[in-house]
């Protein structure tokens, strides 16, 4: 861990959001270590733990907190105008497979089927930012699906569209206007879901090409008849 | 791949040798198991940077998996720098950085020597299989290119890269980046720029804009390069390499204070970059800003502790900037600064023990520190203890000689200093940069405070001149010359003002006499001096108007 503490003159006011951000940073790292140990535990005790619903809950919830913290940090940096998209070209099938890999122990533990269906294409996006969005979306799909989830990618109207689908009950009507998410419309009473969508929509907007900007779309149906999350990147 | 993990090709993992670097044995063992399960056979585990470097010195490694944070000592980035710098790790080998946090904070510091990939904790078997599997596949596909680069056979590497563009289109970004870089290395700037233009015609990508700007700078299209880089930074404020390149461009154009401001912004975003801090320190020195220079050198020295870039010059420069700060500080502050400087020097003497001239240079720096803190007697005693060295200036490196002269000036022994500089100029008459340093010292052989005073007078003189206020301009230059009478540019500035004043009132012959006085002070200006052409031009103008 890098330690950038500096002596603060006593008479300066505390910048609470910065204190919060560094606390979040610390918690996120702790959870990372915790998740690491959970993965090892699962491997060491494969017989007894693989199908344990309590163990799966522990891992799922830890993963969820980790995602929330990653997003909080992202939003903090958005507020500080410290976040910009590092556009690089990526081979999309590999990108999706690498990100699904992180979730495979949990998916297998929960008995959820998963698949990737990506066109053989390269796409331009910020890897770190999209990682945050994908992790959160996959994690949500794991929570709301019944039996399976599917990641796919294709080109539509000259946009790269990454899609996460499940066969759960789908998104409630109100959430399907997610592309208009603003920070004011965040309702913290409804939990972290809207935080995730706010983050995803902010990340999409950071992706620009000429006049076009990215966006997210939520709807129901798709190939499994459940929730469909799409992020459109120019 | 539905409902089950896709199995990697064990053969792809099997033939390679692996090195895992992590200070936690839990993690090392977990990684060992994961690699085993992937099909790897030759796996070495080490707990520290030292062990890692040692292992790479005597063994060939294909894949390094290195934790970024290894507790005390070197971090992962510093290990990578050392391995690449000492050529203990080939380009054809993979270096994966394992990080506990999103990678960007740390990557931002790095200027070169980026790892081939990142693994973000938490890590499981499936992630390693996928991520490392893909990288191994990429390594295999690009191996002929990287081998050619390792052998410094760049034309071969270029040919191979061009072939690979059609064979392996999925690596096109890597290939185009590499091609741009290779053409630049072999000096084929027009092909290099064509590569970047090709990429940019499809999409505005920061790395391609940066690469193109680097070529523009090399082609001396400074204004275009500077404008492009400014735009690039405005759109990508955390693209640190763009700051570095823009600072180079600005410095080239003599815009050193803009370059300094820019690098200050850069280090506030990303302080962990020793090369950038060093560049900032040098700019601050040029800009006569010892406070900023001292801050930057402090960072350079602190970050150098575990870096392959560390050297005694950094410590000396740091002490020097502190000594200059002492000169202009109040008593209490000067004492604090002086004690910091002395401890920097004593640590340097231990750390770099056995380096030639180190003791002498340290002692000279100590002299100036003591002088800055008002302990003139101590300073004199130290200086007297090494005066014997002046008998044979031919055995001194130019840097040490200049340091000696600076110290003599600081303690008021102008005569010995000038004599030493004259000898040095003769000894090193073929080295332009040494001669320039000698002339700069002769121009301004005064303490930092006086130098600053003269410079600020010079600036207000220029401002007054630009506003057409010739009387104020002349007065400012005269006052500055009272501080540094031999300063060449200042003398010429005054001549320029006086000639203009004479144009407006041709009856004032005293103006011309004053001009001649200035010119006579420059009579011994050497031909290679930066002000020489201006001197000749003004001398001719003066001759023309002389009655």
Distance between the termini of chain A: 35 Å
Multimer state: heterodimer
> What structural category do the secondary elements of chain A indicate?
alpha+beta
How many extended strands of chain A?
Answer: 9
SSE string of chain A, helix = H, strand = E?
Answer: HHHEHHEEHEEHEEEE
Rg of chain B computed from alpha carbons, rounded to a whole number of angstroms: 29 Å
Enumerate the spans of chain B where pLDDT stays under 50 for 5 or more consecutive residues: 1-6
Instruction: Name the average pLDDT of chain A.
Output: 82
Task: From the structure above, extract its key features.
heterodimer; A: 234 residues; alpha+beta; five-stranded mixed β-sheet; two-stranded antiparallel sheet; 7 helices; B: 547 residues; mainly alpha; five-stranded parallel β-sheet; 27 helices; 5 strands; disordered N terminus
Description:
The complex is a heterodimer of chains A (234) and B (547). In chain A, the strands form three sheets. A five-stranded mixed sheet of chain A has the order 2-4-5-9-8. Chain A has a two-stranded antiparallel ribbon with strand order 1-3. A two-stranded antiparallel ribbon of chain A has the order 6-7. In chain A, strand 8 (215-221) and strand 9 form a beta hairpin. Chain A contains seven helices and nine strands; from the N terminus they run H-H-H-E-H-H-E-E-H-E-E-H-E-E-E-E. With 234 residues, chain A is an alpha+beta fold. Chain A has helices spanning 16-44, 46-49, 53-79, 92-101, 104-110, 127-144, 193-206, and strands at 88-91, 113-118, 122-125, 148-156, 159-166, 208-209, 212-213, 215-221, 226-233. The two termini of chain A are 35 Å apart. By secondary structure, chain B is mainly alpha-helical. Chain B has 27 helices and five strands. Chain B has a five-stranded parallel sheet with strand order 2-1-3-4-5, sandwiched between helices. The interface between A and B is large, with 46 and 46 residues.
